[in-house]
Amino acid sequence: MSEANPAVPVPSPLPRQDRRRTIIAASAGNFVEWYDAGIYGIVAVVLARKLFPSDVDPSIALLNTYAVFAISFLLRPLGGIVFGHIADKLNRRRALSVTIIMTPWRPG
């Protein structure tokens, strides 16, 4: 049998308004993620034709396009770790600003 430890504070539940705002924000973020993935999947055929040479088999070009998407999807947690650390050390606004500034930047 377990007894409640009086030294450990029990968190109070979120007020109804905060709970609703959290659910709406999480749902909106989830919708945007799935929308982004769906649009990329639909546009991948066009991107494959435009980004890869015409002498490449269209199936291989499409697979390469999906591979680019898969690599970016798999590297997302690494970005979360790096920029989460930056956000914890500096502040969230600065970390967000850095990611927005770095978005159009590409090496080379």
Please state the overall shape, judged from the principal axes of the Cα atoms. elongated
| Order of helix and strand elements from N to C terminus | HHH
What is the radius of gyration? 21 Å
Helix content: over 70%
Mean pLDDT: 84
Put simply, the count of helices is 3
Strand content: under 5%
Main beta-sheet annotation: none
Number of strands: 0
What's the end-to-end separation, in Å?
A: 63 Å
Q: Would you give an account of this structure?
A:
It is a single chain. With 108 residues, the protein is mainly alpha-helical. The chain is 73% helix and 0% strand. It is built from three helices and no strands. Helix 1 runs antiparallel to helix 2 (58-89) and helix 2 runs antiparallel to helix 3 (92-102). The radius of gyration is 21 Å and the shape is elongated.
Topology of this protein?
Layout: H1 16-51, H2 58-89, H3 92-102
Helix pairs in contact: 1-2, 2-3
Offer a quick outline of the entry:
This protein has three helices and no strands. It has helices spanning 16-51, 58-89, 92-102. By secondary structure, the protein is mainly alpha-helical.
